[in-house]
Amino acid sequence: MEKFLINDLVVFSTEKKSLIPLNDTGNTVSLNGPASECLTLLLKKNGKVIDQKEFFHEVWESKGQYVTTNTFYQNISVLRKAMKAVGINDEIIKTLPKLGIKFTGKVEMISAEHELYNPSENSQADIDVSKEIEITISPNNNKRNTIGLITLLFIAFSILVFTIMDNLKYKTNYLSLYESIGEINQCLVKAKGSDTTSYKSELISLFNQSGLICNKGQTAYITPNSLKNKGSIIICNPENNLESCITYSFTESHHE
């Protein structure tokens, strides 16, 4: 668990995935998982430009997950809204065109045991800015609020459908980046990485030791990290049927 003090005004807890103001100028904000991890990466590399590729790998791909550019920027937008919600009005999360994202605020790591007091905690619930839609309920306007709620739910559903379709399209393009490195029991094995060919025998051995079964006609996609003994294996049956793909993560040490 880590805690960061931002601009001497707000504490970010990685365990709670929350931004907690130290005074009454803002509200406690809860972040979704990816937004929280994006913020953690920005704070740890404060002042340095982080490119999109690094975000993708650290937050999603290292866990065997897929992400679109649109989803990535939605999470960055969530972080900017969160900063304003907790009382930080300066633009401290900056986008540098064609370069990446940089955090420009003041950052200080604090003790995990540090107790926080937030004056607003006794008067109102946390705000979750990871939800793009905010609903305010007025007791004197029930009918109008009901119509508004239905409209907002419809918009949220439309966004969800679009995101799913976008992810499927991205997944198709993503799998095309893998190169064939051999076959196991007539199962085609592919891997992703600039130096894949230099250690393909090691990857084949790693797949054999994983205990996973890949049958004739199936395709196994191996995504190792820089240590070669961690990553993910995706098995699809058949290759062009993406709905049948299953992702497995592996973390066991590999010995030749």
Describe the fold and architecture:
Helix 1 packs across helix 2 and helix 1 crosses helix 3 (69-85). The chain starts with a strand and ends in a 6-residue tail after the last strand. It is 32% helix and 22% strand. It has helices at 33-44, 52-60, 69-85, 142-175, 200-210, and strands at residues 3-6, 10-13, 18-21, 29-30, 93-96, 100-103, 107-110, 127-128, 179-184, 187-191, 219-224, 231-236, 246-250. A six-stranded mixed sheet has the order 7-1-2-3-4-8, with helices on one face. Strands 9-10-11-12-13 form a five-stranded mixed sheet, with helices on one face. Strands 5-6 form a two-stranded antiparallel sheet. It contains five helices and 13 strands. The model is unreliable at 117-126 and 130-142 (pLDDT under 50). It has 256 residues and is of the alpha+beta class. It folds into two domains: 3-128, Winged helix-like DNA-binding domain superfamily/Winged helix DNA-binding domain (Arc Repressor Mutant, subunit A, Orthogonal Bundle); 179-250, no CATH class. It is globular, with a radius of gyration of 22 Å.
Structural class: alpha+beta
What overall form do the CA principal axes indicate?
globular
* Radius of gyration over all CA atoms, rounded: 22 Å
Name of the top-level CATH class of the largest domain: Mainly Alpha
CATH topology of the largest domain: Arc Repressor Mutant, subunit A
Average pLDDT over all residues: 76
Strand order of the largest sheet: 7-1-2-3-4-8
Percentage of residues in DSSP E strands: 15-25%
The CATH superfamily of the largest domain turns out to be Winged helix-like DNA-binding domain superfamily/Winged helix DNA-binding domain
Quantity of strands, as a count: 13
Helix count? Answer: 5
Helix content: 25-40%
